[in-house]
Amino acid sequence: MIDVGISTACLFPGNTETVLEDMAVHIFDNFEIFVNSDCELSDSFAEKILGILIQNHKKAISVHPFTSELEPSYFFSDYSRRFDDGCIYYQKYFKFAGKIGAKYVIIHGDQKNSGISVEEFGKRLMRLNWEAQAYHVEILLENVERCFSRDADVITRLRHLYPELGYTLDVKQVLRSSMDLYKMLEAMGDSLKHVHFSDHNSNNTCLPVGLGDMDIEEFANYLYAHHYSGVVLLELYGNDGEPIKVLADSYHKLKNIFIKCNRKKDV
């Protein structure tokens, strides 16, 4: 059974711990914790987040850095000292993730027009992943429109060269990159470990579940057919209405779709 989760970023700019507390008392079970400032990487803050999760019988799946836009400068410049400094800084995220029980730290990587080779891009990601593994977590490269990871062909080549790397599929970012969703899924293959989900239509790439025209059952059936075993995590921004109710409604609808498709699979 594929499970459903949600990102604390959906209620930005609420304080991370307050957002998590508000979400935890509703139907949400699995969380991506979006770290929004350096002070939130402290041991005491990690203990606070873990306490909220334990008290409410919830689970952290992933951690998302607020420094994603610095990754081209940290990890993909020609200045080696900066790479080393970046690894030291990102150890804070890896340690934080390990303390709260999350398996993954989400990485955006280099900008799309950097000119870096796929080989060098992957080599640096592998070094970063090695740093993460020391804390019993791993990095996942997310496809993002403004980044090198936007292109399914890049992902295909990366998987061939570095099969150990894992990936996060972001549905809205596939659309913003003018890529075909199923081509990107095929590129990530069995290295897909995490999904950021939102509905969409021809005018809006990020909508609550049911307000777009995406065939979500087709998407769910594809994931089941290809033995995906991760979490499909809601990532919604800028919605009208009372935010928590909009999110809870989307979460409930999405979970029901995956339950329905799982039952069909088992018949």
From TrEMBL:
InterPro entries: IolE/XylAMocC-like (IPR050312), Xyl_isomerase-like_sf (IPR036237), Xyl_isomerase-like_TIM-brl (IPR013022). It holds the Pfam family AP_endonuc_2. Signal peptide: none annotated. It comes from the Bacteria. Residues 84-250 form the Xylose isomerase-like TIM barrel domain. This is Xylose isomerase-like TIM barrel domain-containing protein.
